[in-house]
Design a protein that fits this description.
By secondary structure, this protein is α/β, with parallel strands linked by helices. It has eight helices and ten strands. It folds into two domains: 251 residues, 3-Layer(aba) Sandwich (Rossmann fold), CATH 3.40.50; 39 residues, no CATH class. Helix 3 runs parallel beside helix 8 and helix 6 runs parallel beside helix 7. Keywords: DNA damage, DNA repair, Metal-binding, Nucleus, Transcription, Transcription regulation, Zinc, Zinc-finger. This is Transcription initiation factor TFIIH subunit H3.
Length: 315
């Protein structure tokens, strides 16, 4: 006896829904390799104070310590959320300032295939180790940088940190398959001399299908380099606003937690117009027309007899 047509249609609809749910589950279960870059320069620490309640008072050292501690606790909570969502996910955290780049956490304890079967105690140990190592190593990094307090440096090593992260991701992706992402916490101004290095890193990430997300805490100006990084790799560039009712953790969970496949189901804030202007390596100003060294590709706003970067005679 032939089944009613309505039952056939209902069965087909249920199958379609089951297939859709299965596809969504496959996408959400894809392991993620998240590499976090944290700018620990003086400008970043100063701007973290905006996310503290206004009733905080005391000397400046205590205020900066409280702001950094609050930021790290919120970051650790966000990273734990990434691990809980899929225990095959992996995390690495890099910090950098005007003088150095260091790894403060690297999740190497378990293979991607083995983390799914971890017992609850092992998962809790992994989560605890994540927080303790980040707090300890960040404190050691700041202490080691304080010995250079008399040295005046105005350029953060973002280009070097990005290169470190890309090399790390490339090495890990050779042995295991991941959906790789980079999340940048940045507050410094663009460095013209790092323009070529950063753009080369962006093109490398684009070729390797690595997303670059940016949380820019510099409220004074947009970073054209980081805007290009997010735009060209399909990531998110966002400048969180100061608010006592919205902690930084809310921005992290709502914007940067969804992976590549899940983001097509969300509506994110529209990125401001991306500024593709080149930077003059001499003045640091944006230029529309300039001169380019044929050896090192440095750009200048005015004609020069020799390249200031590599010394090559331009005339």
């Amino acid at each position: 006896m032939k089944a009613p047509q309505q039952l056939e249609g209902t069965s087909q609809e249920q199958n379609n829904n089951n297939n859709t749910n299965y596809n969504l589950q496959e996408e959400s279960d894809k392991p993620c390799l998240l590499c976090v870059l944290i700018d620990l320069s003086t400008s970043f620490l100063d701007r973290l104070e905006r996310f503290l309640p206004k009733d905080n008072s005391g000397n400046r050292d205590l205020l900066e310590a409280s702001a950094l501690q609050t930021f790290l606790y919120e970051l650790i909570a966000f990273l734990n959320l990434v691990l809980i969502s899929n225990f095959s996910n992996r995390i690495a955290v890099f910090v950098y300032n005007e003088r150095d780049v260091q790894v403060v956490y690297e999740d190497t304890s378990f293979s991607a295939a083995g983390t799914a079967s971890l017992w609850t105690e092992e998962r809790q140990e992994r989560s605890s180790r994540l927080g303790s190592q980040i707090l300890k190593n960040v404190a050691d990094f700041i202490d080691s940088s304080s010995s250079f307090a008399g040295v005046v440096e105005i350029e953060t090593l973002f280009s070097a940190a990005l290169s470190f992260a890309l090399c790390y991701l490339h090495r890990r992706m050779q042995s295991e398959k991941y959906d790789a992402r980079i999340l940048c916490f940045h507050a410094s101004t663009d460095v013209p001399r790092q323009y070529i290095g950063v753009m080369n890193g962006i093109f490398c990430a684009q070729r390797c299908s690595i997303l670059i997300d940016v949380c820019d805490l510099n409220e004074e100006e947009n970073s054209s380099l980081l805007q290009n990084a997010a735009y060209l790799t399909g990531g998110i560039y966002f400048k969180p606003q100061q608010s006592e009712s919205i902690p930084l953790l809310n921005y992290l969970c709502n914007l940067y937690f969804p992976n590549r496949d899940a983001r097509k189901y969300f509506h994110f804030p529209v990125m401001p117009i991306v500024d593709n202007s080149a930077l003059c390596f001499e003045s640091g100003e944006k230029i529309q027309i300039g001169y380019v060294c044929s050896v090192c590709l440095a750009t200048f706003g005015r004609k020069r007899a020799s390249c200031r970067i590599c010394g090559y005679a331009l005339e």
